[in-house]
Design brief:
By secondary structure, the protein is mainly alpha-helical. The chain is 60% helix and 4% strand. It is built from 22 helices and four strands. The radius of gyration is 23 Å and the shape is globular.
Protein backbone atom coordinates (compact mmCIF):
# COMPACT_ATOMS: atom_id res chain seq x y z
CA UNK A 1 0.00 0.00 0.00
CA UNK A 2 2.77 2.39 0.91
CA UNK A 3 4.56 1.90 -2.40
CA UNK A 4 1.33 2.35 -4.38
CA UNK A 5 0.71 5.59 -2.46
CA UNK A 6 4.18 6.90 -3.31
CA UNK A 7 3.74 5.85 -6.93
CA UNK A 8 0.40 7.70 -7.14
CA UNK A 9 1.78 10.86 -5.53
CA UNK A 10 4.66 10.77 -8.01
CA UNK A 11 2.72 9.95 -11.20
CA UNK A 12 -0.21 12.38 -10.82
CA UNK A 13 2.02 15.52 -11.06
CA UNK A 14 3.82 13.99 -14.06
CA UNK A 15 0.49 13.42 -15.82
CA UNK A 16 -0.71 16.93 -14.93
CA UNK A 17 2.48 18.37 -16.39
CA UNK A 18 1.97 16.44 -19.61
CA UNK A 19 -1.66 17.53 -19.59
CA UNK A 20 -0.50 21.14 -19.59
CA UNK A 21 1.80 20.40 -22.53
CA UNK A 22 -1.10 18.87 -24.45
CA UNK A 23 -3.43 21.76 -23.58
CA UNK A 24 -0.89 24.16 -25.08
CA UNK A 25 -1.04 22.13 -28.29
CA UNK A 26 -4.72 21.23 -28.75
CA UNK A 27 -6.70 23.06 -26.08
CA UNK A 28 -8.51 22.17 -22.86
CA UNK A 29 -10.56 18.96 -22.65
CA UNK A 30 -12.25 20.26 -19.48
CA UNK A 31 -11.11 22.33 -16.51
CA UNK A 32 -9.64 20.95 -13.32
CA UNK A 33 -7.00 18.54 -12.08
CA UNK A 34 -8.64 15.50 -13.65
CA UNK A 35 -9.03 17.32 -17.00
CA UNK A 36 -5.29 17.95 -17.18
CA UNK A 37 -4.51 14.38 -16.15
CA UNK A 38 -6.76 12.89 -18.84
CA UNK A 39 -5.13 15.13 -21.47
CA UNK A 40 -1.76 13.92 -20.19
CA UNK A 41 -2.83 10.27 -20.43
CA UNK A 42 -4.03 10.78 -23.99
CA UNK A 43 -0.89 12.64 -25.07
CA UNK A 44 1.62 10.28 -23.45
CA UNK A 45 -0.20 7.19 -24.76
CA UNK A 46 -0.05 8.47 -28.33
CA UNK A 47 3.57 9.63 -28.07
CA UNK A 48 4.72 6.35 -26.56
CA UNK A 49 2.78 4.37 -29.17
CA UNK A 50 4.68 6.15 -31.95
CA UNK A 51 8.00 5.75 -30.11
CA UNK A 52 7.40 2.01 -29.58
CA UNK A 53 7.58 1.42 -33.34
CA UNK A 54 11.25 2.35 -33.18
CA UNK A 55 12.52 1.58 -29.69
CA UNK A 56 11.47 -0.29 -26.53
CA UNK A 57 9.65 1.64 -23.83
CA UNK A 58 12.42 1.18 -21.31
CA UNK A 59 13.80 3.49 -18.64
CA UNK A 60 15.55 5.58 -21.31
CA UNK A 61 12.10 6.65 -22.48
CA UNK A 62 10.47 6.85 -19.05
CA UNK A 63 13.00 9.12 -17.32
CA UNK A 64 12.88 11.98 -19.88
CA UNK A 65 9.07 11.70 -19.89
CA UNK A 66 9.00 12.01 -16.09
CA UNK A 67 11.31 15.04 -16.03
CA UNK A 68 9.29 16.76 -18.78
CA UNK A 69 6.03 16.27 -16.88
CA UNK A 70 7.46 17.42 -13.55
CA UNK A 71 9.10 20.46 -15.19
CA UNK A 72 5.79 21.73 -16.57
CA UNK A 73 4.00 20.81 -13.32
CA UNK A 74 6.23 23.14 -11.28
CA UNK A 75 6.84 25.73 -14.01
CA UNK A 76 3.11 26.36 -14.37
CA UNK A 77 2.48 26.01 -10.60
CA UNK A 78 -0.12 23.33 -11.23
CA UNK A 79 0.08 22.27 -7.59
CA UNK A 80 -2.07 25.32 -6.86
CA UNK A 81 -5.03 23.43 -8.35
CA UNK A 82 -5.08 21.24 -5.24
CA UNK A 83 -5.64 24.31 -3.03
CA UNK A 84 -9.08 24.69 -4.65
CA UNK A 85 -10.29 21.50 -2.98
CA UNK A 86 -12.31 22.17 0.17
CA UNK A 87 -11.63 20.33 3.42
CA UNK A 88 -14.76 18.28 2.81
CA UNK A 89 -13.60 17.41 -0.72
CA UNK A 90 -10.16 16.47 0.56
CA UNK A 91 -11.68 14.22 3.20
CA UNK A 92 -13.78 12.32 0.63
CA UNK A 93 -10.78 12.05 -1.71
CA UNK A 94 -8.53 10.77 1.11
CA UNK A 95 -11.00 8.08 2.22
CA UNK A 96 -11.76 6.91 -1.33
CA UNK A 97 -8.03 6.86 -2.20
CA UNK A 98 -7.24 4.79 0.89
CA UNK A 99 -9.91 2.24 -0.07
CA UNK A 100 -8.63 2.16 -3.67
CA UNK A 101 -4.98 1.70 -2.65
CA UNK A 102 -5.92 -1.07 -0.23
CA UNK A 103 -7.88 -2.92 -2.94
CA UNK A 104 -5.05 -2.42 -5.42
CA UNK A 105 -2.55 -4.09 -3.08
CA UNK A 106 -4.12 -7.56 -3.43
CA UNK A 107 -2.82 -10.31 -5.69
CA UNK A 108 -3.90 -10.08 -9.34
CA UNK A 109 -6.43 -12.78 -10.16
CA UNK A 110 -7.71 -12.01 -13.68
CA UNK A 111 -6.31 -14.75 -15.91
CA UNK A 112 -5.59 -12.30 -18.74
CA UNK A 113 -3.12 -10.67 -16.34
CA UNK A 114 -0.85 -13.67 -16.75
CA UNK A 115 -1.70 -14.72 -20.31
CA UNK A 116 -2.00 -11.34 -22.03
CA UNK A 117 -1.27 -8.20 -19.97
CA UNK A 118 2.14 -9.10 -18.52
CA UNK A 119 3.56 -10.71 -21.71
CA UNK A 120 2.43 -7.64 -23.70
CA UNK A 121 4.15 -5.29 -21.26
CA UNK A 122 7.34 -7.34 -21.34
CA UNK A 123 7.51 -7.18 -25.15
CA UNK A 124 6.84 -3.43 -25.14
CA UNK A 125 9.51 -2.65 -22.54
CA UNK A 126 12.14 -4.98 -24.00
CA UNK A 127 11.52 -4.65 -27.75
CA UNK A 128 8.69 -2.17 -28.44
CA UNK A 129 6.08 -2.97 -31.08
CA UNK A 130 7.35 -6.03 -32.94
CA UNK A 131 6.20 -6.66 -36.48
CA UNK A 132 4.15 -9.85 -36.74
CA UNK A 133 4.27 -10.56 -32.99
CA UNK A 134 0.89 -12.30 -33.36
CA UNK A 135 2.76 -15.18 -35.01
CA UNK A 136 4.40 -15.89 -31.65
CA UNK A 137 1.14 -15.62 -29.72
CA UNK A 138 -2.05 -14.40 -31.37
CA UNK A 139 -3.21 -12.48 -28.28
CA UNK A 140 -0.06 -10.35 -28.42
CA UNK A 141 -1.33 -8.90 -31.69
CA UNK A 142 -3.73 -6.73 -29.67
CA UNK A 143 -1.03 -4.59 -28.00
CA UNK A 144 -3.67 -2.33 -26.41
CA UNK A 145 -2.79 1.36 -26.19
CA UNK A 146 -3.48 1.09 -22.46
CA UNK A 147 -0.64 -1.39 -22.16
CA UNK A 148 1.60 1.01 -24.06
CA UNK A 149 0.74 3.61 -21.43
CA UNK A 150 1.39 1.14 -18.59
CA UNK A 151 4.65 -0.04 -20.17
CA UNK A 152 5.96 3.52 -20.28
CA UNK A 153 5.64 3.81 -16.49
CA UNK A 154 6.58 0.22 -15.60
CA UNK A 155 10.36 0.61 -15.35
CA UNK A 156 10.56 3.08 -12.47
CA UNK A 157 7.31 4.85 -11.57
CA UNK A 158 5.01 1.83 -11.39
CA UNK A 159 7.05 -1.41 -11.34
CA UNK A 160 4.17 -3.31 -9.69
CA UNK A 161 1.84 -2.50 -12.61
CA UNK A 162 -0.90 -0.80 -10.58
CA UNK A 163 -1.72 1.90 -13.14
CA UNK A 164 -5.41 1.03 -12.77
CA UNK A 165 -5.23 1.85 -9.06
CA UNK A 166 -3.83 5.27 -9.92
CA UNK A 167 -6.59 5.75 -12.49
CA UNK A 168 -9.27 4.99 -9.89
CA UNK A 169 -7.86 7.74 -7.67
CA UNK A 170 -8.03 10.11 -10.64
CA UNK A 171 -11.61 9.00 -11.27
CA UNK A 172 -12.63 9.75 -7.68
CA UNK A 173 -10.98 13.15 -8.09
CA UNK A 174 -13.11 13.79 -11.19
CA UNK A 175 -16.30 12.93 -9.30
CA UNK A 176 -15.36 15.32 -6.48
CA UNK A 177 -14.28 18.17 -8.78
CA UNK A 178 -17.42 17.96 -10.92
CA UNK A 179 -19.73 17.37 -7.93
CA UNK A 180 -21.18 14.53 -9.98
CA UNK A 181 -21.52 11.98 -7.21
CA UNK A 182 -22.88 8.98 -9.10
CA UNK A 183 -19.30 8.12 -10.06
CA UNK A 184 -18.57 7.30 -6.41
CA UNK A 185 -21.21 4.56 -6.67
CA UNK A 186 -19.23 2.92 -9.49
CA UNK A 187 -15.88 3.01 -7.69
CA UNK A 188 -16.38 -0.01 -5.36
CA UNK A 189 -17.33 -2.28 -8.28
CA UNK A 190 -14.30 -1.11 -10.24
CA UNK A 191 -12.02 -2.06 -7.33
CA UNK A 192 -12.10 -5.57 -8.80
CA UNK A 193 -10.00 -4.26 -11.73
CA UNK A 194 -7.43 -2.40 -9.63
CA UNK A 195 -4.84 -5.17 -9.25
CA UNK A 196 -4.10 -5.60 -12.99
CA UNK A 197 -3.54 -3.29 -15.98
CA UNK A 198 -6.84 -4.46 -17.44
CA UNK A 199 -8.07 -2.28 -20.34
CA UNK A 200 -11.65 -2.91 -19.16
CA UNK A 201 -11.23 -0.39 -16.34
CA UNK A 202 -10.05 2.66 -18.33
CA UNK A 203 -12.68 2.20 -21.03
CA UNK A 204 -15.49 2.09 -18.46
CA UNK A 205 -14.13 5.14 -16.61
CA UNK A 206 -13.36 7.17 -19.72
CA UNK A 207 -16.70 6.37 -21.35
CA UNK A 208 -18.79 7.58 -18.40
CA UNK A 209 -16.58 10.67 -18.07
CA UNK A 210 -17.04 11.56 -21.75
CA UNK A 211 -20.75 10.82 -21.42
CA UNK A 212 -20.95 13.11 -18.40
CA UNK A 213 -19.14 15.88 -20.29
CA UNK A 214 -21.54 15.61 -23.23
CA UNK A 215 -24.61 15.68 -20.97
CA UNK A 216 -23.12 18.64 -19.07
CA UNK A 217 -22.84 20.59 -22.32
CA UNK A 218 -19.10 20.34 -23.09
CA UNK A 219 -18.83 21.41 -26.73
CA UNK A 220 -15.11 20.83 -27.27
CA UNK A 221 -15.88 18.70 -30.31
CA UNK A 222 -12.29 18.09 -31.37
CA UNK A 223 -11.05 16.72 -28.06
CA UNK A 224 -14.19 14.83 -27.05
CA UNK A 225 -14.20 12.96 -30.35
CA UNK A 226 -10.44 12.39 -30.16
CA UNK A 227 -10.76 10.99 -26.65
CA UNK A 228 -13.68 8.76 -27.66
CA UNK A 229 -11.55 7.33 -30.49
CA UNK A 230 -8.73 6.86 -27.97
CA UNK A 231 -11.12 4.77 -25.84
CA UNK A 232 -11.94 2.71 -28.93
CA UNK A 233 -8.22 2.08 -29.54
CA UNK A 234 -7.89 0.76 -25.99
CA UNK A 235 -10.72 -1.73 -26.55
CA UNK A 236 -12.52 -1.83 -29.94
CA UNK A 237 -15.73 -3.17 -28.37
CA UNK A 238 -16.19 0.45 -27.21
CA UNK A 239 -17.15 1.41 -30.76
CA UNK A 240 -20.41 2.89 -29.46
CA UNK A 241 -18.60 5.85 -27.86
CA UNK A 242 -17.03 7.44 -30.99
CA UNK A 243 -20.28 6.69 -32.84
CA UNK A 244 -22.23 8.55 -30.14
CA UNK A 245 -19.88 11.54 -30.06
CA UNK A 246 -19.87 11.75 -33.86
CA UNK A 247 -23.66 11.52 -34.16
CA UNK A 248 -24.17 14.00 -31.31
CA UNK A 249 -22.00 16.68 -32.85
CA UNK A 250 -23.20 16.10 -36.42
CA UNK A 251 -26.95 16.01 -35.76
CA UNK A 252 -27.23 18.25 -32.70
CA UNK A 253 -24.35 20.76 -32.95
CA UNK A 254 -23.84 20.66 -36.75
CA UNK A 255 -20.05 20.29 -36.62
CA UNK A 256 -17.71 20.45 -39.59
CA UNK A 257 -15.25 17.82 -40.79
CA UNK A 258 -12.12 19.63 -39.55
CA UNK A 259 -13.15 19.06 -35.94
CA UNK A 260 -12.84 15.30 -36.42
CA UNK A 261 -9.31 15.35 -37.88
CA UNK A 262 -7.48 14.72 -34.58
CA UNK A 263 -9.71 11.74 -33.77
CA UNK A 264 -9.29 10.43 -37.32
CA UNK A 265 -5.50 10.67 -36.94
CA UNK A 266 -5.66 8.61 -33.73
CA UNK A 267 -7.80 6.04 -35.55
CA UNK A 268 -5.24 5.90 -38.38
CA UNK A 269 -2.44 5.29 -35.85
CA UNK A 270 -4.53 2.49 -34.35
CA UNK A 271 -4.91 0.82 -37.76
CA UNK A 272 -1.18 1.15 -38.48
CA UNK A 273 -0.29 -0.33 -35.08
CA UNK A 274 -2.58 -3.32 -35.64
CA UNK A 275 -1.30 -3.90 -39.17
CA UNK A 276 2.26 -3.85 -37.80
CA UNK A 277 1.64 -6.35 -34.99
CA UNK A 278 -1.27 -8.38 -36.35
CA UNK A 279 -1.31 -7.91 -40.12
CA UNK A 280 -4.90 -6.62 -40.28
CA UNK A 281 -6.42 -3.22 -39.31
CA UNK A 282 -8.60 -4.43 -36.39
CA UNK A 283 -7.66 -7.27 -34.04
CA UNK A 284 -8.78 -10.09 -34.13
CA UNK A 285 -10.83 -9.71 -37.32
CA UNK A 286 -9.13 -10.90 -40.50
CA UNK A 287 -10.72 -8.18 -42.66
CA UNK A 288 -8.73 -5.82 -44.86
CA UNK A 289 -6.11 -8.26 -46.13
CA UNK A 290 -3.11 -6.34 -47.45
CA UNK A 291 -1.20 -9.48 -48.36
CA UNK A 292 1.49 -8.85 -45.74
CA UNK A 293 4.10 -11.55 -45.16
CA UNK A 294 3.72 -11.34 -41.36
CA UNK A 295 -0.05 -11.80 -41.11
CA UNK A 296 -1.11 -14.85 -39.03
CA UNK A 297 -1.72 -18.23 -40.59
CA UNK A 298 -5.33 -18.73 -41.69
CA UNK A 299 -5.60 -22.04 -39.81
CA UNK A 300 -4.49 -20.37 -36.57
CA UNK A 301 -7.07 -17.62 -37.10
CA UNK A 302 -9.69 -20.29 -37.69
CA UNK A 303 -8.80 -22.02 -34.40
CA UNK A 304 -9.01 -18.65 -32.62
CA UNK A 305 -12.40 -17.90 -34.17
CA UNK A 306 -13.75 -21.27 -33.11
CA UNK A 307 -12.46 -20.69 -29.58
CA UNK A 308 -14.23 -17.29 -29.44
CA UNK A 309 -17.50 -18.94 -30.46
CA UNK A 310 -17.09 -21.57 -27.74
CA UNK A 311 -16.31 -18.80 -25.20
CA UNK A 312 -19.66 -17.25 -26.11
CA UNK A 313 -21.21 -20.35 -24.56
CA UNK A 314 -18.71 -20.45 -21.69
CA UNK A 315 -16.98 -23.53 -23.16
CA UNK A 316 -20.04 -25.60 -22.25
CA UNK A 317 -20.48 -26.82 -25.84
CA UNK A 318 -18.02 -28.02 -28.45
CA UNK A 319 -17.61 -26.05 -31.67
CA UNK A 320 -19.28 -28.88 -33.60
CA UNK A 321 -22.28 -28.82 -31.28
CA UNK A 322 -22.64 -25.05 -31.68
CA UNK A 323 -22.46 -25.37 -35.47
CA UNK A 324 -25.46 -27.69 -35.33
CA UNK A 325 -27.56 -25.24 -33.29
CA UNK A 326 -30.77 -23.97 -34.82
CA UNK A 327 -31.52 -20.24 -34.53
CA UNK A 328 -33.66 -20.99 -31.48
CA UNK A 329 -30.85 -23.08 -29.96
CA UNK A 330 -28.40 -20.17 -30.34
CA UNK A 331 -30.69 -17.94 -28.29
CA UNK A 332 -32.03 -20.49 -25.79
CA UNK A 333 -28.63 -21.98 -24.92
CA UNK A 334 -27.07 -18.54 -24.47
CA UNK A 335 -29.75 -17.66 -21.92
CA UNK A 336 -29.55 -21.03 -20.15
CA UNK A 337 -25.82 -21.50 -19.58
CA UNK A 338 -24.90 -23.09 -16.28
CA UNK A 339 -23.77 -20.64 -13.62
CA UNK A 340 -23.67 -16.86 -13.38
CA UNK A 341 -23.01 -16.19 -17.09
CA UNK A 342 -26.64 -16.87 -18.09
CA UNK A 343 -27.87 -14.47 -15.41
CA UNK A 344 -25.58 -11.73 -16.75
CA UNK A 345 -26.79 -12.40 -20.31
CA UNK A 346 -30.45 -12.11 -19.23
CA UNK A 347 -29.79 -8.90 -17.29
CA UNK A 348 -27.96 -7.48 -20.31
CA UNK A 349 -30.93 -7.97 -22.65
CA UNK A 350 -33.39 -6.74 -20.02
CA UNK A 351 -31.23 -3.63 -19.48
CA UNK A 352 -31.29 -2.86 -23.19
CA UNK A 353 -35.07 -3.26 -23.30
CA UNK A 354 -35.49 -1.00 -20.26
CA UNK A 355 -33.22 1.61 -21.80
CA UNK A 356 -35.08 1.53 -25.12
CA UNK A 357 -38.34 2.17 -23.25
CA UNK A 358 -36.63 4.91 -21.20
CA UNK A 359 -35.36 6.63 -24.36
CA UNK A 360 -38.81 6.40 -25.96
CA UNK A 361 -40.47 7.97 -22.91
CA UNK A 362 -37.89 10.78 -22.57
CA UNK A 363 -37.92 11.60 -26.29
CA UNK A 364 -34.64 13.53 -26.01
CA UNK A 365 -32.26 13.57 -28.97
CA UNK A 366 -29.13 12.84 -26.91
CA UNK A 367 -30.66 9.89 -25.03
CA UNK A 368 -31.98 8.50 -28.33
CA UNK A 369 -28.49 8.75 -29.85
CA UNK A 370 -26.99 6.99 -26.80
CA UNK A 371 -29.57 4.22 -27.20
CA UNK A 372 -28.83 3.84 -30.93
CA UNK A 373 -25.07 3.74 -30.28
CA UNK A 374 -25.42 1.05 -27.59
CA UNK A 375 -27.67 -1.02 -29.85
CA UNK A 376 -25.10 -0.86 -32.68
CA UNK A 377 -22.36 -2.01 -30.30
CA UNK A 378 -24.58 -4.77 -28.84
CA UNK A 379 -25.49 -6.14 -32.27
CA UNK A 380 -21.81 -6.26 -33.28
CA UNK A 381 -20.82 -8.01 -30.04
CA UNK A 382 -23.68 -10.51 -30.25
CA UNK A 383 -22.76 -11.28 -33.86
CA UNK A 384 -19.05 -11.93 -33.23
CA UNK A 385 -18.60 -13.25 -29.69
CA UNK A 386 -21.29 -12.54 -27.10
CA UNK A 387 -19.07 -12.84 -24.02
CA UNK A 388 -20.24 -10.86 -21.01
CA UNK A 389 -16.86 -9.11 -20.66
CA UNK A 390 -17.49 -7.41 -24.00
CA UNK A 391 -20.66 -5.67 -22.85
CA UNK A 392 -19.90 -4.93 -19.17
CA UNK A 393 -19.63 -1.22 -19.96
CA UNK A 394 -23.25 -1.14 -21.16
CA UNK A 395 -24.50 -1.68 -17.58
CA UNK A 396 -22.54 1.33 -16.32
CA UNK A 397 -23.72 3.57 -19.17
CA UNK A 398 -27.40 2.69 -18.79
CA UNK A 399 -27.30 3.13 -15.01
CA UNK A 400 -25.47 6.44 -15.41
CA UNK A 401 -27.90 7.90 -17.94
CA UNK A 402 -30.99 6.90 -15.93
CA UNK A 403 -29.77 7.83 -12.43
CA UNK A 404 -27.08 10.53 -12.82
CA UNK A 405 -29.45 13.22 -11.51
CA UNK A 406 -30.65 11.13 -8.58
CA UNK A 407 -27.46 10.84 -6.52
CA UNK A 408 -26.35 13.72 -4.33
CA UNK A 409 -23.21 13.54 -2.21
CA UNK A 410 -24.90 12.00 0.83
CA UNK A 411 -26.58 9.19 -1.14
CA UNK A 412 -23.42 8.47 -3.13
CA UNK A 413 -21.21 8.31 -0.02
CA UNK A 414 -23.63 5.85 1.62
CA UNK A 415 -23.66 3.61 -1.48
CA UNK A 416 -19.86 3.92 -1.80
CA UNK A 417 -19.37 2.92 1.85
CA UNK A 418 -21.69 -0.11 1.72
CA UNK A 419 -20.36 -1.42 -1.60
CA UNK A 420 -16.73 -0.81 -0.59
CA UNK A 421 -17.16 -2.96 2.50
CA UNK A 422 -18.77 -5.65 0.35
CA UNK A 423 -16.11 -5.78 -2.37
CA UNK A 424 -13.17 -5.38 0.01
CA UNK A 425 -14.61 -8.32 1.97
CA UNK A 426 -14.68 -10.39 -1.22
CA UNK A 427 -11.02 -9.57 -1.89
CA UNK A 428 -10.03 -10.19 1.73
CA UNK A 429 -12.07 -13.38 2.22
CA UNK A 430 -12.42 -14.97 -1.24
CA UNK A 431 -13.59 -18.26 0.30
CA UNK A 432 -17.08 -16.76 0.41
CA UNK A 433 -17.36 -16.19 -3.34
CA UNK A 434 -15.56 -19.47 -4.06
CA UNK A 435 -18.11 -21.36 -1.99
CA UNK A 436 -21.33 -19.60 -2.94
CA UNK A 437 -20.54 -18.55 -6.51
CA UNK A 438 -18.32 -21.31 -7.96
CA UNK A 439 -19.34 -20.46 -11.55
CA UNK A 440 -17.46 -17.15 -11.17
CA UNK A 441 -14.17 -18.80 -12.10
CA UNK A 442 -11.99 -15.75 -11.51
CA UNK A 443 -12.95 -15.95 -7.85
CA UNK A 444 -11.09 -19.24 -7.57
CA UNK A 445 -7.83 -17.38 -8.23
CA UNK A 446 -8.32 -14.75 -5.53
CA UNK A 447 -6.16 -14.85 -2.44
CA UNK A 448 -6.93 -13.15 0.84
CA UNK A 449 -5.13 -10.34 2.60
CA UNK A 450 -1.48 -10.73 3.59
CA UNK A 451 0.30 -8.32 5.92
CA UNK A 452 3.07 -7.73 3.35
CA UNK A 453 0.50 -5.78 1.30
CA UNK A 454 0.73 -2.92 3.78
CA UNK A 455 4.18 -2.14 2.34
CA UNK A 456 4.01 -3.34 -1.27
CA UNK A 457 1.35 -4.84 -3.55
CA UNK A 458 1.21 -8.62 -3.82
CA UNK A 459 2.70 -10.18 -6.96
CA UNK A 460 3.41 -13.69 -8.20
CA UNK A 461 6.66 -15.30 -9.31
CA UNK A 462 7.04 -18.61 -11.12
CA UNK A 463 10.21 -18.64 -13.25
CA UNK A 464 10.03 -22.25 -14.43
CA UNK A 465 10.71 -22.78 -18.10
CA UNK A 466 12.70 -24.64 -20.72
CA UNK A 467 14.55 -23.29 -23.74
CA UNK A 468 13.98 -24.82 -27.18
CA UNK A 469 14.85 -24.08 -30.79
CA UNK A 470 12.76 -24.75 -33.90
CA UNK A 471 14.27 -23.52 -37.16
CA UNK A 472 15.85 -20.13 -36.47
CA UNK A 473 13.56 -19.37 -33.52
CA UNK A 474 15.07 -19.98 -30.10
CA UNK A 475 12.36 -19.55 -27.48
CA UNK A 476 11.45 -20.21 -23.85
CA UNK A 477 8.35 -22.10 -22.77
CA UNK A 478 6.88 -22.38 -19.30
CA UNK A 479 6.27 -25.87 -17.91
CA UNK A 480 3.52 -27.11 -15.60
CA UNK A 481 1.69 -23.83 -16.14
CA UNK A 482 -0.35 -22.43 -19.06
CA UNK A 483 0.90 -18.80 -19.06
CA UNK A 484 4.30 -17.22 -19.72
CA UNK A 485 3.86 -14.16 -17.52
CA UNK A 486 7.41 -14.14 -16.11
CA UNK A 487 9.14 -16.41 -18.63
CA UNK A 488 12.10 -14.59 -20.25
CA UNK A 489 11.49 -13.38 -23.80
CA UNK A 490 11.09 -14.57 -26.43
CA UNK A 491 8.48 -16.89 -24.94
CA UNK A 492 5.67 -18.97 -26.37
CA UNK A 493 2.79 -20.50 -24.41
CA UNK A 494 2.16 -24.27 -24.54
CA UNK A 495 -1.35 -23.74 -25.96
CA UNK A 496 -0.14 -21.62 -28.85
CA UNK A 497 2.76 -23.99 -29.44
CA UNK A 498 0.30 -26.83 -30.02
CA UNK A 499 -1.93 -24.61 -32.19
CA UNK A 500 1.06 -24.12 -34.46
CA UNK A 501 1.81 -27.84 -34.49
CA UNK A 502 -1.81 -28.59 -35.35
CA UNK A 503 -1.61 -26.12 -38.25
CA UNK A 504 1.70 -27.61 -39.45
CA UNK A 505 3.50 -24.25 -39.15
CA UNK A 506 5.86 -22.52 -36.73
CA UNK A 507 6.91 -18.89 -36.12
CA UNK A 508 10.30 -17.89 -37.48
CA UNK A 509 12.41 -14.75 -37.20
CA UNK A 510 12.35 -12.50 -40.27
CA UNK A 511 16.02 -11.81 -39.46
CA UNK A 512 17.69 -14.49 -37.38
CA UNK A 513 19.97 -11.87 -35.83
CA UNK A 514 17.34 -9.28 -34.90
CA UNK A 515 14.06 -10.02 -33.09
CA UNK A 516 12.93 -6.42 -33.55
CA UNK A 517 12.56 -7.04 -37.29
CA UNK A 518 9.69 -9.33 -36.48
CA UNK A 519 8.19 -12.75 -37.08
CA UNK A 520 6.59 -14.65 -39.90
CA UNK A 521 5.17 -18.16 -39.99
CA UNK A 522 6.53 -20.99 -42.10
CA UNK A 523 5.40 -24.49 -42.94
CA UNK A 524 7.65 -26.86 -41.03
CA UNK A 525 10.34 -28.80 -42.81
CA UNK A 526 11.04 -32.41 -41.86
CA UNK A 527 13.97 -31.24 -39.74
CA UNK A 528 11.79 -28.69 -37.92
CA UNK A 529 9.13 -31.33 -37.30
CA UNK A 530 11.80 -33.43 -35.58
CA UNK A 531 12.74 -30.43 -33.43
CA UNK A 532 9.08 -29.94 -32.54
CA UNK A 533 8.76 -33.59 -31.61
CA UNK A 534 11.69 -33.20 -29.20
CA UNK A 535 9.82 -30.34 -27.54
CA UNK A 536 6.67 -32.47 -27.26
CA UNK A 537 8.67 -35.35 -25.76
CA UNK A 538 10.22 -33.00 -23.20
CA UNK A 539 6.78 -31.70 -22.22
CA UNK A 540 5.43 -35.25 -21.84
CA UNK A 541 8.41 -36.30 -19.72
CA UNK A 542 7.96 -33.27 -17.47
CA UNK A 543 4.28 -34.06 -17.04
CA UNK A 544 5.22 -37.51 -15.75
Amino acid sequence: MILILFSSIFMIPVLMGWGKIMENIWGVLFQGISGKILSGILGLSLIWTVISFFTPLNINIEIPSIFSGLFFFFKNKLYQNFYKLTKKDFKVLSVSSLVIIFAGSFYPYILDHFGYYIPTLKWLTEYGLVKGISNVDLTLGQMSVWHTFQAGFSNFSDPFLRINTVLLIIYSMYSIEKKNWIHLCFLPILLLFSQSPSPDLPVIIFSVIILNEIIAGNRNITLLFAFSVFVFTIKPTMIWLPILVFLNFVFIFKSNFKQFLLGSSILFLFFVKNIWTFGYPVFPIAIGDLGLSWKPNSEVLKISSQFAIMKTYDMQYTYEEIQNFSTWDYIKNWFSLEGIKSKINIIFILSLIIFIVFAWIKKKKLITLICISLLIKSIIVLAFSAQYRFFTDVFFVIFFVIFHEYFDQKKAVIVFSILSVFFISILSFPEFIQRYLPSFRAGNFMRGFEKEQIYKPATYEYQQFHTFKVGNFKFNMVHHYPYSFDTPLPAITPAYFFDNVKAGIFPQLSDKNDIKKGFIWKKMTSEEKEEVQKVINTIKNNDK
